[in-house]
Amino acid sequence: MTTTIIAKAASFTDDGYITLLGFADDPSTPVNYVMLNMTNEPDEQDLGLDQGGIHIDAGALQVDGYDLVQDIRETDAGVVVSLTADAAQKGGIDQEIEIELASKVIDGTPVGEAVQRFKNRLSSWEQAKAR
Asked: What is the DSSP letter of 61?
């Protein structure tokens, strides 16, 4: 069974160093949320700590850490975050977290563009680890 969050709040920020993409079921007191963040240009320290990929914090879903996101994609309803099998099993949830969005624009950025940035990071991180 797919885990679904109906996001009443969403945020996308890029301060030049870190990019954050977040979704929550309530803007004031979220119970269910997913926050993804990544360093835009991981340095040697990040790489040495295996923190050059995407970090996820999914709160009540008990998913928190680096390299737990296998894929992220835009859908007609919003966004799907695919977890690694180990992360899903540890949290006792399905591998896919479906996030339903009311709008296809988050903080002035199209959802597809925000998702693509994270997809690109997944790809470049996998290539860096393979070297």
From this structure: G
